[in-house]
Amino acid sequence: MAEYRKAANVKDVSSGSGMVMQIDDKRVALFNVGGNFYAIDNTCKHRGGPLGDGELDGTTVICPWHGWQYDVTSGQCKTNPQVCVTRYDVKVEGDEIKIAL
Ligand code: FES
Questions:
Q1: Order of strands, edge to edge, in the sheet holding 4-9?
Q2: Domains of the chain, with CATH numbers?
Q3: Which of 2, 19, 42, 77 could form a Cys-Cys staple with 29, CB 3.0–4.6 A?
């Protein structure tokens, strides 16, 4: 069963941006969309680009390497519909953001 792990503080991720974090053996991309937080696997399925460093447009993140687009709420790739990255559940407790891994 997934266990919620502290990933960041709310103030660490400003609205409209993302960040990359390492939790155990996973690299996770965490995004703030208008005060709602979403987490997906950081590794782009195209050639491994860091999605957490990508530009955020609403709920879409654009991979900084070649522009593949992913919905951060689901992990679904919009550029190649057959591709999906793992999405993780997120909850906020006080000023802590926790991700279920
Ligand atoms: S590595 Fe992400 S679009 Fe190429």
A1: 4-9, 96-100, 90-93
A2: 4-100 (2.102.10.10)
A3: 42
Q: Is 34 left (phi over 0), alpha (psi -120 to 50) or beta?
A: left
- The separation between CA 90 and the C-alpha centre of its own chain, rounded to angstroms, equals 10
The pLDDT averaged over each successive group of 10 residues in the chain (101 residues) is 92 96 95 98 98 98 98 98 97 97 91
Q: Which atom of ligand 1 sits closest to the CA of residue 64?
A: 2
Is 65's C-beta closer than 6 angstroms to any atom of ligand 1? Answer: yes
Q: Could you give the 3-state DSSP secondary structure of residue 60?
A: strand
Q: Angle 59-61-63 (CA atoms, 0-180°, nearest 5)?
A: 170
Does residue 4 line the site of ligand 1, with CB under 6 A? no
